[in-house]
Amino acid sequence: MTKAEQLQTVAILVPGDFNDHAIERIDSTFNRVRIERADPALVTDEMRSNVRGIASFAGINAAMMDALPNLELIASFGVGYDSVDVGHAAAKNIMVTNTPDVLTEEVADTAIGLLINAVRDLPRAETWLRDGSWLRKGNYPLSRLTLRGRKAGIFGMGRIGLAIARRLEVFGLPVAYHNRRQVEGLGYQYHPTLKGLAEAVDTLISVAPGGASTEKAVNAEVLSALGANGVFVNIGRGSTVDEAALAAALANGTIAAAGLDVFADEPNVPKALLDAPNTSLLPHVGSASDHTRRAMADLCVDNLVSWFIERRPLTPVPETVNVKAAG
Ligand code: DGY
């Protein structure tokens, strides 16, 4: 059997909606098995004995992994993998891969767009033009806020955080950051606590990953430290924010504005954030261009191909880097 013929026999489970290009590539390379969602109750006996890989945009929990005893690899679509139980995967010798790097610049571009929207109120200004207010009422009111003179703080100085920082530098903003650990050799000012960073800046951009260690890290205390001229932008994960505290801070003037691409319970967005006049909201589109999603799809599928031919992944997540392929 040729390698290509061998791959045709490997069953890859794809739960729920998935990227079209990834589906085309999986269909032409592997034996794709479809399932409505990643739910162990939907796993048939045939899937149980055949499935060796999963390609997924959605989360994969421990029960789903346990329902597939021959599972070797979860190729997660996206850089954030907080919805995959990687601890359980590592314990069961299941490799997990993600799609870093190929989306970095796109997400950084979106973060800057969201920041400018939040500061200069551009979405409402566009509505003003479109609904005829410009004709009927005259010029759109001056924006209360400006990017000029701001100091930016990045929560989560990874690859995307750095790409955002570089862009902010070009905009003339000084940059500081908070991470679990200081990044060696990086010239930006490091703050060992998120509150310390918020106190030092007036523009906080969160790129932090989800998970227990960042759960509701952006809380009432951090928002109060950011201050009345403060702008908060979230391009990372909604779980990192106490959304009730954020809504209260926006309503009572503790901070000035927020730009949010991610929410704790997507696609549900708290009404208080929807109704707030000082929010700019996006439906989790950070990496969502055809170009970038295609690159993510290729990396996701290339990980499957590499694993099932070379027996090694291209972009393993750190938690499963020591998982070894059997045979
Ligand atoms: C990611 O890659 O983590 C983006 O948020 C898309 O889910």
Automatic annotation (TrEMBL):
Give the record's keywords alphabetically: NAD, NADP, Oxidoreductase
Task: Give every D-isomer specific 2-hydroxyacid dehydrogenase NAD-binding domain span.
Answer: 112-286
The record ties this protein, via InterPro entries, to:
D-isomer_2-hydroxyacid_DH (IPR050223), D-isomer_2_OHA_DH_cat_dom (IPR006139), D-isomer_DH_NAD-bd (IPR006140), NAD(P)-bd_dom_sf (IPR036291)
Q: Which GO terms describe its molecular function?
A: glyoxylate reductase (NADPH) activity; hydroxypyruvate reductase [NAD(P)H] activity; NAD binding
* Top-rank lineage group of the source organism: Bacteria
Recorded hits in SUPFAM superfamilies, A to Z, give:
Formate/glycerate dehydrogenase catalytic domain-like, NAD(P)-binding Rossmann-fold domains
Q: Which residues form the D-isomer specific 2-hydroxyacid dehydrogenase catalytic domain?
A: 23-317
Q: Which GO terms describe its cellular component?
A: cytosol
Q: Which CDD domains match?
A: HPPR
User: Which family does the UniProt entry place this protein in?
Assistant: Belongs to the D-isomer specific 2-hydroxyacid dehydrogenase family.
Q: What PANTHER family does this protein's entry cite?
A: 2-HYDROXYACID DEHYDROGENASE YGL185C-RELATED, 2-HYDROXYACID DEHYDROGENASE-RELATED
Mind telling me what this protein is named? 2-hydroxyacid dehydrogenase
Native source species: Mesorhizobium kowhaii
Q: Taxonomic classification, please?
A: Bacteria, Pseudomonadati, Pseudomonadota, Alphaproteobacteria, Hyphomicrobiales
